[in-house]
Amino acid sequence: MPLAMLQSGYFQGSDPLFDYSRLGSTIAHEMLHHFDSHGIGYNQTMYQNSWVSNSTLDSFEERTQCLVDQYFSYYFPEVGLYLNGSQTLDENLADNGGLRQAFKAFRTLVQQGQVDSQSTQYSRDQLFFISYATAWCSQESEAYLENLITNNAHPPARVRVLGTLSNMEEFSEAFRCPIGSAMNPKEKCAVW
User: Fold this and answer.
1) Where is the Peptidase M13 C-terminal domain (predicted)?
2) Could you report the per-residue pLDDT of 39-69, keeping only the tens digit for each?
3) Which of 72, 75, 184, 190 has the fewest Cβ atoms nearer than 10 Å?
4) Which residues have C-beta within 8 Å of that of residue 40, sequence separation ≥ 6?
């Protein structure tokens, strides 16, 4: 975990809403790499030895196929390329699961009365998701974007937001996204 993530702008230290959406989702993301398509093949002593049953592995592959298919559908007109959902699977799995776990932890704090929302314009849940999304704000050049899409396991920033949030029922409820819209598809992907 890069120490730069503990700097203001990414981490406040006193704002659970901000910290859980950004740093919490990142910590959970990194932890979930131990349960992605590569990590699942290693045991507790880090020797390559699958520790899951065949039925669990079958279920895992079925659920991850949903993510593969979803991310293959993202098109980047500025470079004329579709994202390779197989190439970015482990990052997509960690992004989706990381945000899901961070949101669960955040909701626990809300239920315990430990989160105070100052905004009258947005709900706590909306602010959580807005904070997560703004952490990915970036301007990617066409050359960078093309290289990222063709040579990297990490998807472009906009997909890390759109793909992840569109898989969360809680996001769709918070923003009242119509069923079947881009941000509230009928079929949502969830692995962990």
Assistant:
1) 2-191
2) 777 666 666 666 777 888 888 899 999 999 9
3) 75
4) 50, 51, 52, 57, 60
pLDDT in tens, 70-87: 999 999 999 999 999 999
Whether the predicted model's global pTM rises above the 0.85 cut:
yes
Residue type at position 36: D
Q: Catalytic: 170?
A: no
Token readout for 187 is 């079929």
Are 124 and 17 contacting, i.e. CB atoms less than 8 angstroms apart?
yes
Catalytic: which of 19, 36, 91, 95?
A: 95
**Minimal CA–CA distance to 131: which of 25, 3, 33, 2?**
25
Q: State the number of CA atoms in the 13 A half-sphere of 127 facing the CB.
A: 19
19 catalytically annotated: no
For residue 76, what are the β-bridge partners?
81
